[in-house]
TrEMBL record, chain A:
<keyword id="KW-0067">ATP-binding</keyword>
<dbReference type="InterPro" id="IPR022413">
    <property type="entry name" value="ATP-guanido_PTrfase_N"/>
</dbReference>
<dbReference type="InterPro" id="IPR000749">
    <property type="entry name" value="ATP-guanido_PTrfase"/>
</dbReference>
<dbReference type="GO" id="GO:0046314">
    <property type="term" value="P:phosphocreatine biosynthetic process"/>
</dbReference>
<dbReference type="InterPro" id="IPR022414">
    <property type="entry name" value="ATP-guanido_PTrfase_cat"/>
</dbReference>
<comment type="similarity">
    <text>Belongs to the ATP:guanido phosphotransferase family.</text>
</comment>
<protein>
    <recommendedName>
        <fullName>Creatine kinase S-type, mitochondrial</fullName>
        <ecNumber>2.7.3.2</ecNumber>
    </recommendedName>
</protein>
<feature type="domain" description="Phosphagen kinase N-terminal">
    <location>
        <begin position="45"/>
        <end position="131"/>
    </location>
</feature>
<keyword id="KW-0418">Kinase</keyword>
From TrEMBL, chain B:
<feature type="domain" description="Phosphagen kinase C-terminal">
    <location>
        <begin position="125"/>
        <end position="367"/>
    </location>
</feature>
<keyword id="KW-0418">Kinase</keyword>
<keyword id="KW-0808">Transferase</keyword>
<protein>
    <recommendedName>
        <fullName>creatine kinase</fullName>
        <ecNumber>2.7.3.2</ecNumber>
    </recommendedName>
</protein>
<dbReference type="GO" id="GO:0005524">
    <property type="term" value="F:ATP binding"/>
</dbReference>
<dbReference type="InterPro" id="IPR014746">
    <property type="entry name" value="Gln_synth/guanido_kin_cat_dom"/>
</dbReference>
<dbReference type="InterPro" id="IPR022414">
    <property type="entry name" value="ATP-guanido_PTrfase_cat"/>
</dbReference>
<feature type="binding site">
    <location>
        <position position="236"/>
    </location>
    <ligand>
        <name>ATP</name>
    </ligand>
</feature>
<feature type="region of interest" description="Disordered">
    <location>
        <begin position="96"/>
        <end position="123"/>
    </location>
</feature>
């Protein structure tokens, strides 16, 4: 390959000759006008897709599993209407080979259109990540009617806190990997203006990351609200930490039960939370807040990114659909010691994390338990799954306390056909 | 393909003010020089390969800097960056390189015979001697901007050329992604191995993309001549050995560089160079010679003297710890090297180091004997 390459660029010999004759600037002139600074179009001819195909042999992420030389060749020279490219989408997956046990996604969207323009890559990635969900044939249900949820007030001897989070993107503006500073500031402006219109128990305040006082910062840390510049290479390699902390901030209501992160990993992350086990109220506030914010931005001519194939569009394909993670911090001292714990969680379509969030270890017997799925089931379905699951776990814990045996529940089916 | 946030035309939908970075907490050369006017003039421009102003300054926007250390805050994506964005880069260069003007000419001198002395720095004090520089291959984008195809092409070209070196320069290439555990350990023990950058200054510029694809280390069998491929620059070339024979180190450096340049030319490639900026490298701080010539030298007494800093300044030298930039000195041993890169030739800079280190050692000996060094104080070079 090296020799065919050198044949391709042998026309540089003229320039080299000129240079060796001591005509330095002449050679520069020759190269600059002829083939020195390769214009982008000349470069695509000189470097066929095969020369640019990433080395993914040591990689274990959804992108690496899905990307073939054929797909790469087809998509490499395409751009979204915002000029975002395939190489930019996959950079994070190329730079982070992954972990043998944890399969990361390995690609991000730069804008809403990425999921279309690069569908040949994103569709198999989505299928891999979301249990076989096929965006070409399936529809994603959206349901934010919290009145449908039942049995969602947990035993507070076990459940210490309840939380629901999701993300929302503003249609027409590029996503965090791709956005320019002006676009990011526009996201901030649109969202903060809308949030200023929230009233009653949702009335609150915005704290720009770059402008907050020491005191405000400390308060936000104490409340566990503050987010910091990403350090994970999964995120930094996806270009989302550029220009930090410009146009990033945290909004929360006065009661500290409804919180919005602006321009962190997504345009917005929306969180409803409170101490105790009243998931019903948490989800009710979540839905009400989301609907009000949506209404407020629509009044100004904006809307959220959404379509019926993929639901709510977010930066990471893992958050498509509902983008929803509903969870509790729950004490399960006996159940967590039982060898069947993991299997029970699996069958209930739940996951466990430490109380510090993803990739943390549990402290003591308290776990963060939340739904595994994001896409293919509605918000109501996922929250009900979480509620039923947590109730079941608490029942198991109580049984084990009494010395009774427990059964592993049957696995929940994947998709509504 | 262009890397990074290059959808320039989209940004033009917003006004220059709306896009202008917030540099209020910043302390780097780029932040000192950039104004809204310059930003407005340059933001719709691109080099032929698609590198833009925002690509250039991203690292400086993301890294506000340090109140005491002045970083550069911008990088080039290709040779043409220095032309297309000269309105910003000329004042950055002037600021960084001691008043070097856009009309100044830089002299290149890689003739080791022009170096006076340098073969007898006192080995009781001078533990090792080293000269390094960088080279960029004309026609390719630089590390912040190059595609995988380009980076691999540079690697292949380098391997082909370096494989033809013979005599005491004969050596071997170790690709970062293929090396065995044993090879890796050996390179670490020899202090040759470079690793994926962790400094946010480098990461924010995009030069660590696709690591370790296309990166590697070549060294001669004698372990005195070393080439890094596709780290912070296309090539970093290093000549080094134990002891104080800087002349021999510089001889090998010049011979090796000249040979490598010839081998590249045989393959139809030349190094990026022009008579104003000398050798063109990724970071504006390395323009001109890109040369850092230095020694590890024991100066336990002199380093405690209150005139140490002043002496170094007058000699146009800088000190670092023996771990390199941003490390502390251990056991009174310092890394002493030339502070300048541009506006002086290679020979002139190495001469400054040779003469300067000789003087520092003489001062150290005086202080050992309890005598004063006042009469040895040098003039400002």
């Amino acid at each position: 390959m090296a020799s065919s390459f050198t044949r391709l660029i042998s026309s540089r010999n003229t320039a080299a000759l000129l240079a060796s004759l001591g005509a330095g600037t002449m050679a520069t002139g020759f190269l600059m006008s002829e083939n020195g600074p390769l214009a982008a179009d000349k470069k695509t001819k000189l470097y066929p897709p095969s020369s640019d195909f990433p080395d993914l042999r040591k990689h274990n992420n959804c992108m690496a599993a899905a990307l073939t030389p054929a797909i790469y060749a087809k998509l490499r020279d395409k751009v979204t209407p915002n000029n975002w490219t395939l190489d930019q989408s996959i950079q994070t997956g190329v730079d982070n080979p992954g972990h043998p046990f944890i399969k990361t996604v390995g690609c991000v969207a730069g804008d809403e259109e990425s999921y279309e323009v690069f569908a040949e890559l994103f569709d198999p990635v989505i299928k891999d990540r979301h249990n076989g969900y096929d965006p070409r044939t399936m529809k994603h249900p959206t349901d934010l009617d919290s009145s449908k949820i039942t049995n969602a007030v947990f035993d507070e001897n076990y459940v210490l806190s309840s939380r629901v989070r999701t993300g929302r993107s503003i249609r027409g503006l590029s996503l965090p990997p791709a956005c320019s500073r002006a676009e990011r500031r526009e996201v901030e402006r649109v969202v903060v203006t809308a949030l200023a219109g929230l009233k009653g128990d949702l009335a609150g305040r915005y704290y720009g990351l770059g402008d907050m006082t020491e005191k405000e910062q400390q308060q936000l840390i104490d409340d566990h609200f503050l987010f910091d510049k990403p350090v994970s290479p999964l995120l930094t390699c996806a270009f989302m930490a550029r220009d930090w902390p410009d146009a990033r901030g945290i909004w929360h209501n006065n009661e500290k039960t409804f919180l919005i992160w602006v321009n962190e990993e997504d345009h917005t992350r929306v969180i409803s939370m409170e101490k105790g086990g009243n998931m019903k109220r948490v989800f009710e506030r979540f839905c009400r807040g989301l609907k009000q914010v949506e209404h407020l931005i629509q009044e100004r001519g904006w809307e959220f990114m959404w379509n019926e194939r993929l639901g709510y569009i977010l930066t990471c394909p893992s958050n498509l659909g509902t983008g929803l993670r509903a969870g509790v911090h729950v004490r399960l001292p006996k159940l967590s010691q039982d060898p069947r714990f993991s299997k029970i969680l699996d069958n209930l379509r739940l996951q466990k994390r430490g109380t510090g969030g993803v990739d943390t270890a549990a402290t003591g017997d308290t776990f963060d338990i939340s739904n595994n799925d994001r896409l293919g089931k509605s918000e109501v379905e996922l929250v009900q799954l979480l509620v039923d699951g947590v109730n079941h776990l608490i029942e198991c814990e109580k049984k084990l306390e009494k010395g009774q045996d427990i059964k592993v529940p049957a696995p929940i089916t994947q998709f509504r056909k | 393909m262009p890397f990074g946030n290059t959808h320039n035309k989209l940004k033009m939908n917003y006004s220059s003010d709306q896009e202008y970075p917030d540099l209020s907490k910043h302390n780097n050369h780029m932040a000192k020089v950039l104004t809204p006017e310059i930003y407005e003039n340059l933001r719709d421009k691109e080099t032929p390969s698609g590198f833009t102003l925002d690509d250039l300054i991203q690292t400086g926007v993301d890294n506000p800097g340090h109140p005491f250390i002045m970083t550069v805050g911008c990088v080039a994506g290709d040779e043409e960056s220095y032309e297309v964005f000269k309105e910003l880069l000329d004042p950055v260069i002037e600021d960084r390189h001691g008043g070097y003007k856009p009309s100044d000419k830089h002299k290149t001198d890689l003739n080791p015979d022009n170096l006076q002395g340098g073969d007898d720095l006192d080995p009781n004090y001078v533990l090792s001697s080293r000269v390094r520089t960088g080279r960029s291959v004309r026609g390719f984008c630089l590390p912040p901007h190059c595609s995988r195809g380009e980076r691999r092409a540079i690697e292949n070209l380098s391997i082909e050329s370096l494989d033809l070196l013979d005599g005491d320069l004969k050596g071997k290439y170790f690709a970062l992604k293929n090396m065995t555990e044993e090879e890796q350990q050996q390179l670490i023990d020899d202090h040759f191995l470079f690793d994926k950058p962790v400094s946010p200054l480098l990461l924010a510029s995009g030069m660590a993309r696709d690591w370790p694809d296309g990166r590697g280390i070549w060294h001669n069998d004698n372990k005195t001549f070393l080439v890094w491929v596709n780290e912070e620059d296309h090539l970093r070339v290093i000549s080094m050995q134990k002891g104080g024979n800087m002349k021999e180190v510089f001889n090998r450096f010049c011979t090796g560089l000249t040979k490598i340049e010839g081998l590249f030319k045989e393959r139809g490639h030349e190094f990026m160079w022009n008579e104003h900026l000398g050798y063109v490298l990724t970071c504006p701080s390395n323009l001109g010679t890109g040369l850092r010539a230095g020694v590890h030298v024991k100066l336990p007494n002199l380093s405690k003297h209150d005139k140490f800093g002043e002496v170094l300044k007058r000699l146009r030298l800088q000190k670092r710890g023996t771990g390199g930039v941003d490390t502390a000195a251990v056991g009174g041993v310092f890394d002493i090297s030339n502070a300048d890169r541009l506006g002086f030739s290679e020979v002139e800079l190495v001469q400054m180091v040779v003469d300067g280190v000789n003087l520092l050692v003489a001062m150290e000996k005086r202080l050992e004997g309890g005598d004063s060094i006042d009469d040895l104080m040098p003039e400002q070079k």
